[in-house]
Amino acid sequence: MPDQRTVLFLYTRLPDYFYSCVQHFVATYPCKAVIVRYKGDKDTNYTFAPDENIQLFYKDDLDIPVFIQELQPSAIVVTGWSDRIYTEATKKYVRRIPVVVTVDNPWQGILRQKVLATLAPWAIHGFANHAWVPGWSQYEYVRRLGFPRDKILRSMYCADTEKFYKTQPDGVDFKVDNYPKTIVYAGRLVEYKQPHVLAKVFNEMAEAGNSPWKLILAGEGPLKKTIAEQKYSHVEILDFLNPAMLPEFYQRSGIFCLPSKDEHWGVAVHEAVAAGLPVLLSDTVESASAFLINGYNGLSFRTSDDSSLKHSLRFLMNMSAVELVRMGNNSVGLSKSINHAIWSATLYNVLN
Questions:
Q1: Same-domain pairing of 170 and 315
Q2: What sign has the CA pseudo-torsion 165, 169, 172, 178?
């Protein structure tokens, strides 16, 4: 059996879905993982099952350069380039081992990105020799940053899809006789994700049309109080849902909506399609490139355009249960394009 190798992850947040990816990785390959991350996010409340091949540390408790020197990892994965302590520490390893920078920024052609593309040989390649991206728009960005094609990894983000498949192994046909008339949003209640816009637009529609549908917002964040103060009669607000509760929650739901403005990816979309939900996404949700075919498993609308959002909501809410179930089953099919096996193999390939 090959010697066990160590992969060091230098991260900021530690979401549940990422931890499940790492669990699959160390269970599949002769590797152990060491994860360094920031201290807790007040808008989430993740708990992680112990794993003998995964060690967790807080960045604030470590001297990062000394820690890496003592660990002697086989590869390092660093989240972006915003943390200067991380990027400075990896510079001395970039000529020795794979150092992978994760990039979820889509290429937008803005001045800041063009300047960074010019400076990349010094600003980026000095601390990383591989890039890991979730989709094609991010792939285009890192190509412009000068990463060769054979040094770019895909499928950076992956939901824990199996837990959704287990709750409905035969698809979502069971919903056809009593389709749930609920639009759901599960995520942080923050400005750029625009849950307040969704709540306002949906409530206006529901009151004007005497609709049997309702909207459920599940999550924490600075906008929670703001939305609650509006006392919308057709909007229900739930607390943050533990990831283990999501499969059952989505099983009782009708349509998933993510109205974000400039969502760099959106793992919540992958979770929703794995759960068999039709999806309604703004046209700046980048994960739509993988998980939405307009009219096949949901709809797209113009971001920050209330009339476009209303039109798309109305269209989906007026569909029959049979049509919505068909869309939901199509979602499940699209969700399988990225999974834990692909994520783990992608990372392990860097070690070889």
A1: yes
A2: negative
Burial of 55 (0-12, 13-18, 19+ CB in 10 A): middle
- Residues 109 and 170 reside in one and the same domain: no
Instruction: Give the Cα separation of 44 and 65 in Å (integer).
Output: 29
Range of the domain at 77: 5-158+338-351
Q: How far apart (Å, rounded) are the C-alpha atoms in residues 104 and 112?
A: 15
Report the CATH number that the domain containing residue 51 is assigned in CATH. 3.40.50.2000
Q: How many residues are given for the chain?
A: 352
| CB proximity list for 94: less than 8 A, separation 6 or greater | 125, 126, 127, 128, 129
Q: What is the 3-state secondary structure (H, E, C) of 248-308?
A: HHHHCCCEEEECCCCECCCHHHHHHHHCCCCEEEECCECCHHHHCCECCCEEEECCCCHHH
Q: Please say whether the beta carbons of 116 and 109 come within 8 A.
A: no
Q: Are residues 260 and 241 in the same domain?
A: yes
Provide the 10 A C-beta neighbour count for residue 24. Answer: 18
In this structure, are 344 and 297 located in the same domain?
Answer: no
Buried b (16+ CB within 10 A) or exposed e, 208-229: eeebebbbbbbbbbebbeebee
Whether pTM exceeds 0.85: yes
pLDDT of residue 2: 60
* pLDDT of 40 over the 70 cut: yes
Q: Are 288 and 318 members of one domain? A: yes
Phi and psi for 152 in degrees, rounded to 5? -115, 125
| 191-205 confidence digits (pLDDT tens) | 999 999 999 999 999
* Residue 339 backbone dihedrals phi, psi, to 5 degrees: -150, 175
pLDDT in tens, 276-307: 999 999 999 999 999 999 999 999 999 999 99
Same domain, 16 and 151: yes
Q: For residue 329, how many other CB atoms are within 10 A of its CB?
A: 17
